[in-house]
Amino acid sequence: MARSKYTEVELGMIADISGNLKRILHLKGVSQTDLSNKTELPTSTISDYVNGKTLIPPGNLQKIADALNVLKSDINSSFKKTQSYKSIPLIDRICAGEGLLAEQNVEGYIHYPFQDSRQPDYALRVKHDSMIGAGIESGDIVFMRYAQWADYNGQIVATLINNDEEGTLKRIKWSEGSPLIKLMSGNSKHKVIEVLPNQVRVFGVYMGHFRPENHQETS
């Protein structure tokens, strides 16, 4: 049974857990029912955690973290250690029809080097040369923060256009008075794509990138 009153600290923790769970479930394409089945916790209990109604006890937090293949600190930020690095899932493609971080899309895990900064949600291995004008080459690793739209006009985003099987990095732009969204590459060989807002999906915004030491261009 839920407690009748929580402290301000606990309320903040509940809100943090709720937001993190919603994000992780969405990214991994896991439903609350799926999570209930994996953890053997009642669906009503999972719903309370996801919707910020009750605080997850440590035992259930570990069950949920194990079921989602994440750290406890990814769900409850209070478990984060000040000097620990977060493991970022590295994916090799952005595609429709499944969770962005579905297991079949995750190539491995890497670390984000800036501990005190906002941590990315995932990293993407670049396969094409469409953003070389922004210094992003094929084979580079790009850090992304999950978002469903750009923070500002002209931002680099991971995007998927309707009917395409795989997404790409593009610079997204719009103009006042025009209904069309422009998706622009950083390579003059690629044409500007114009679409309506409902024809494009954004899966994250660019946070930075690096070139692996064993860098090899991929086609």
Automatic annotation (TrEMBL):
CDD domains, A to Z: HTH_XRE (cd00093), S24_LexA-like (cd06529)
A Pfam family recorded for this sequence: Peptidase_S24
Chain ranges of the HTH cro/C1-type domain: 21-75
GO MF assignments: DNA binding
Designated name of the protein: Repressor LexA
